[in-house]
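Tip: read the tokens left to right.
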């Protein structure tokens, strides 16, 4: 490792540590938990960095493209091109090596974690929901697999950060600074993963149509807007679903392809032709599970997935679904979550890819639930004050 590489590495460790401590003090976060988050995130970054080298995954491809590209203008675009356009100046102008590029994207993911921590802590501060006497938000934030999939050089760390920033902006939409943050984070989401941007806009439009207090004229307008969005993003959607058109023949052809592909890769791929919808949803959220875990890593993932399953059951047992339609923000968050959940359950047959992408949308559900609890508690306090 060259001297400049060591300098950049020390810089990232230092600046990350300062950010964690100062941000935690400013927002009254538990410093022990904050430091634990920081340590786990750094360990997972090192682990993923080594994992990416051994398996030659997308992160390596992005770095090599940034290393060899002569003209930065050739990298301007969305998706992969956008990641390369960010990485190229780091590599060619600042002299970052592969690990330091990882550290940069990992820091973006770390910011997302602490933004999420702040939101959940505020929403749960007066009603600390626990599992095994431990605050559930601590269990969520300390899941190693969560950090593993949001620390790499690539789209996931930026998608995660953009998603949390968007939700923070929606919850604090009465301030100008959050309006600017909303615009920038939506733009970032579009540049990194255009289909998530489409799902976001679709969730907003659908939630406004469903929400009871929306005027009927606006509902008609939003209905036409959905049609317009579909026509405008048709090619992007076809590309995402990997189909030629929206005909039954094309859909069946894609399903049959993945069905045949999965036969030789049992355990890592789901056969969509022989799996019902509810099992697809379960597989997306909670597999690998104990019954199909192969090796120590998948067994460890199964333990984390068991925690997620228990947390989801606990949340749904509190029967908050019936309140979704009574608040526009809650309806928007849950609509966005279910759009992602349904579409990805039906299209992601690779369990590794599913595990990676679920951590972009699971925080949306957690924030929605804690937002509901805060809203419900305020309502209960208001009713109690009237009864006094």
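Filled-in amino acids:
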């Amino acid at each position: 490792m060259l001297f400049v590489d060591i300098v950049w590495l020390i810089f990232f460790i230092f600046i990350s540590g300062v950010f964690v401590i100062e941000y935690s003090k400013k927002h009254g976060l538990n410093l022990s938990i904050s430091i634990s988050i920081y340590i786990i995130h750094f360990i997972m970054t090192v682990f993923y960095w080594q994992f990416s080298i051994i398996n030659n995954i997308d992160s390596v491809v992005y770095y090599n493209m940034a290393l060899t590209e002569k003209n930065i203008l050739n990298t301007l675009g969305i998706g992969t091109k956008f990641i390369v356009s960010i990485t190229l100046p780091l590599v060619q102008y600042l002299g970052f090596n592969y690990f330091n590029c990882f550290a940069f994207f990992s820091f973006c993911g770390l910011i997302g974690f602490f933004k999420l921590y702040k939101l959940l802590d505020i929403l749960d501060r007066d009603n600390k929901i626990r599992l095994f006497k431990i605050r559930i938000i601590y269990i969520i934030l300390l899941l190693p697999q969560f950090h593993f999939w949001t620390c790499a050089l690539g789209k996931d760390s930026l998608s995660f950060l953009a998603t949390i920033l968007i939700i923070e902006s929606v919850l604090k939409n009465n301030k100008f600074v959050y309006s600017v943050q909303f615009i920038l984070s939506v733009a970032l989401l579009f540049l990194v993963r255009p289909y998530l941007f489409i799902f976001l806009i679709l969730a907003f439009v659908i939630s406004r149509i469903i929400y009871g207090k929306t005027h009927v004229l606006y509902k008609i307008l939003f209905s036409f807007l959905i049609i317009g969005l579909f026509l405008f993003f048709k090619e992007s959607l076809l590309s995402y679903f990997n189909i030629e058109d929206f005909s039954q023949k094309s859909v069946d052809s894609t399903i049959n392809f993945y069905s045949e592909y999965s036969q030789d890769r049992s355990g890592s791929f789901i056969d969509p032709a022989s799996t019902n919808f509810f099992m697809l949803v379960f597989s997306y959220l909670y597999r690998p599970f104990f019954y199909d875990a192969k090796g120590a890593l998948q067994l460890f993932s199964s333990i984390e997935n068991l925690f997620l399953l228990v947390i989801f059951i606990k949340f749904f047992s509190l029967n908050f679904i019936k309140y979704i339609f009574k608040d526009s923000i809650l309806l928007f968050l849950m609509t966005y979550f279910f759009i992602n959940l349904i579409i990805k359950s039906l299209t992601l047959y690779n369990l590794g890819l599913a595990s990676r992408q679920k951590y972009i949308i699971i925080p949306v559900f957690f924030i929605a639930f804690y937002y509901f609890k805060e809203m419900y508690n305020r309502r209960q306090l208001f009713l109690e004050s009237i009864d006094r």
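Residues 241 and 347 are 7 Å apart (CA to CA). The chain has a mean pLDDT of 84.
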